[in-house]
């Protein structure tokens, strides 16, 4: 099953760095946050990625086009230009990088990569980290038989809040005031049929499609009580940096 990562937004709330690069390429611990997200997925055996780029997408394209140079030590023969790589990373990824447009909204970006995904796929954003159990999330999705499953977390309230019954979402509210509600944690498992709910580039995934799935009883959830942290601001970037420096980053399980 492929992992779709939305990485095309402008990242205006962390403009200190996003003026020169897309937010998913902002580094924490010396690596882009996008790399951390992909590394975490690969721990669970998910090694095929579809990255939806837009704003400064060429930075992401260049990074993966020269991935071995970025990740390895190497020796250059300046006489003939030969490059010998050594101490390479151990990632075994297949990465599709798709230009989904500069102004395209989140739903529109998903629709644009429809031909690159299978019947079911995982979707997440390129600016958040978690230690969510992906195996349990995927199992929950298939056991439910529903079209979509969202990871429900409970951080400060400025994201889409979820009301839930025993197995599905009953109400979805975009960005309410902080009230302790469970929120959209951004790790989804989706059946390809949900893309039929997207009506164009202007479609915002978190508004029309999620609400339609909720109204039809087709949005399930997986409750995650562990670590979850977005990186929308410089302060949140510093939180993630501090966790890495203190060797207390919950998502770094590959060392």
Look at the structure and give the mean pLDDT: 91
Q: Report the principal-axis shape.
A: globular
CATH topology category name: Spore Coat Polysaccharide Biosynthesis Protein SpsA, Chain A
Q: Beta-strand level of the residues, as a percent range?
A: 25-35%
Number of distinct beta strands? 15
Supply Rg: 19 Å
Order of helices and strands: EHEEHEHHEEEHEEHEEEEHEEH
CATH H-tier superfamily: Spore Coat Polysaccharide Biosynthesis Protein SpsA, Chain A
**Sheet with the most strands?**
9 strands, mixed
The termini sit apart by: 25 Å
Measured as a percent range, the helix fraction is 25-40%
Notes on the protein architecture:
The structure is a single chain. This protein is of the alpha/beta class and 255 residues long. The protein has a single domain, classed as Spore Coat Polysaccharide Biosynthesis Protein SpsA, Chain A (Alpha-Beta Complex), CATH 3.90.550.10. Helix content is 26%, strand content 28%. The chain is built from eight helices and 15 strands. The two termini are 25 Å apart. The relative contact order is 0.18.
Short overview:
By secondary structure, the protein is an alpha/beta fold. It has helices spanning 15-18, 33-43, 57-65, 67-71, 106-112, 134-144, 208-215, 234-245, and strands at 3-7, 27-28, 31-32, 48-53, 73-76, 83-86, 94-99, 120-125, 128-130, 148-153, 161-164, 169-173, 182-191, 219-223, 228-230. The longest helix is centred in the last third of the chain and has 12 residues, at 234-245.
């Amino acid at each position: 099953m492929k992992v779709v990562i939305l990485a095309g937004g402008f990242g205006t709330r962390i403009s200190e760095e996003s003026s020169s690069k897309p937010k998913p390429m902002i580094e924490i611990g010396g690596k882009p946050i996008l790399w951390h997200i992909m590394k975490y997925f690969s721990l669970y055996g998910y090694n095929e990625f579809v990255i939806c780029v837009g704003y400064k997408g060429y930075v992401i394209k260049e990074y993966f086009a020269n991935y071995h140079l970025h990740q390895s030590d190497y020796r250059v023969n300046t006489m003939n230009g030969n490059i010998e790589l050594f101490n390479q990373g151990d990632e075994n990824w297949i990465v599709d990088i798709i230009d989904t447009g500069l102004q395209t909204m989140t739903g529109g970006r998903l629709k644009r990569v429809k031909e690159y995904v299978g019947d079911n796929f995982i979707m997440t954003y390129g600016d958040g980290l978690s230690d969510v159990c992906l195996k349990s999330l995927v199992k929950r999705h298939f056991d439910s038989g529903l079209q979509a499953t969202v990871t429900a977390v409970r951080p400060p309230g400025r994201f889409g809040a979820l009301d839930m019954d025993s197995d599905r979402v009953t109400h979805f509210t975009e960005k309410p005031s902080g009230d302790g509600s469970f929120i959209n944690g951004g790790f989804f498992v989706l059946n390809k049929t949900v893309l039929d709910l997207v009506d164009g580039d202007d479609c915002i995934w978190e508004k029309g499609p999620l609400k339609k799935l909720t109204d039809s009883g087709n949005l399930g959830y997986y409750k995650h009580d562990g670590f979850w942290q977005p990186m929308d601001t410089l302060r949140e970037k510093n939180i993630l940096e501090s966790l890495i420096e203190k060797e207390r980053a919950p998502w770094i399980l590959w060392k």
